[in-house]
Amino acid sequence: LGAHVSLLACIAALAIAGHAATPLAAARMAPPDVDALVQVRGGLQGSDAGARMLSRGVCDMLDAVGASRAWMRASSAAGVSPWKLFERCAGRDASLLVRRSGDRADWVLALEVPQRDACDLLRSIGGRMHGASRFALPQFGLAGSVSGDWLLVSDRADSSLMRDMLRVASEPGQPTL
For the chain, how big is the Rg over CA atoms in Å? Predict the structure, then answer.
């Protein structure tokens, strides 16, 4: 129930903050069976009540899927606050996608980051590349892939949601959200 309340708070905050008019860019690579997609477009620069409510909702969603501890460790390694790391990553578009998988939530944080910036970001926090597009951040318990201008991050290298997102992004005609 807490995750559903947080999701509703995020949606309400998006509308209040005026971000709801922007299309959900990550939806183009989201498989149709995701349970939630929460988007932050253009970062969270505002200091108004809507932006504060949205930032609380984003933090609640990260807590709900178990991603906040890893994010705190990543920000510490990068030498910046968790919020500054989020602003750096979410400057264009950041979307949290969640799909329930049995009794556990499978989540992917999709960050719209130019490839060169993604490489710099991964290097700054000690990322290890595995092939041309896959990476691992084992010190934080995170893994991911680069797909075009999208940096996809999850807590599992074998994330079925991430695998499905990569398939949808690479194969024309795949059904999306």
Answer: 15
Q: Could you give the CA distance from residue 29 to residue 165 in angstroms, rounded to a whole number?
A: 5
pLDDT, one tens digit per residue, over 105-162 is 899 988 888 877 888 888 877 888 888 789 998 887 889 998 888 889 898 888 999 9
Instruction: Put residue 78 in one of left, alpha, beta given phi > 0 → left and psi -120 to 50 → alpha.
Output: alpha
DSSP SS3 for 137: strand
Q: Read out DSSP for 156-176?
A: -TT-HHHHHHHHHHHSTT---
User: Could you tell me if 17 and 45 are in contact, meaning their C-beta atoms sit under 8 angstroms apart?
Assistant: no
Inter-axis angle of helices 68-78 and 82-89, nearest 10: 90
Task: Give the DSSP letter of residue 16.
Answer: H
3-state secondary structure of 96: strand
